[in-house]
Amino acid sequence: MKHTTLQTREVAIGYRSKKQTQVLHRGMDLALHEGELNCILGPNGAGKSTLIKTLAGFMEALEGEIFLMGAPRTERSFKKLSHLMSVVLTDRIQIPHSRVLDIVGMGRYPYTSIIGRFGQKDRKIVDQALKRVGIEAMKHRFFDELSDGEKQKVMIAKALAQDTPVIILDEPTAFLDFPSKIEVMQILMGLAKDTGKSVLLSTHDVELALQVADQIWLMDKGKDIQTGPPEDLVLSNVLNHFFEKETIYFDKYTGTFLLKNNTGSKINTSGRQPYLFWLNKALTRIGFNTAEKGEGESEVVIKAKDDILLLLPDKTRTKFTSIESLINFLKNRI
Description:
Number of strands: 18
Helix content: 25-40%
CATH class of the largest domain: Alpha Beta
Strand content: 25-35%
CATH superfamily of the largest domain: P-loop containing nucleotide triphosphate hydrolases
Largest sheet: 6 strands, mixed
Structural class: alpha/beta
Radius of gyration: 25 Å
């Protein structure tokens, strides 16, 4: 049975000033387990970063209690906390005149002597962190010469060198191009699975989070937090209720967000994948709402990229050898 590494009981988060207290969420009972990657999802202003900073100790909980490795976090000394939890924030970091090796080495400071002297064990752990994140070859490069993706890997390696059972990250894929987002997520997923560490991160990349997360924490203004495996949240339509807007919806069959058209024109589609997926995207783009059989007046069956059959209400059957030729035909009839 997996141990619980981080837990909240009846926690409220928000902001407290001399004049007033603004509560964003309250009554939160959340749990993070060893060997799991959990993702916090939600729109801007939902409170994701506030929750991250509260769990990490940068902000105080307004109510309730946070437990770290079975004990109240408030009972942990600063030194003990640095042995149990490492944090990577989303801020663009500028560290001039510092080499990658030195920055990753900062993760070992909780374990070094008063003068910060490294031992053989510290150097070994730093080297392992560099290798784990795939930046061993750039350890002598200057940090400010790196790309955003490379910098983010350095900060993850620093957190890994800190050797804590819990790693918390606020928007670790912000500012990255899509291939770099995937690479960073794969690194974090590997950390959880291979080392048994608990990884918690906030992100806007819903579709990517659905592929890597063991648990999703869904947040939105004025709503209770919903948690669970991504598959259960998708199939129960919980995810759709959180993110559906007037112009987009979450398609549980493909795990992606699609455009919603308000033309009222429906067309039935069926066929083989992946051709059906791309056919539906093309039809949506030109103004159709794709539907299951029986809801639309016309029907398109796609068996291969060059084998497409259109059945019109008047029983006319027309074959097409590409999605482009079908789209051009339908455009002239809209």
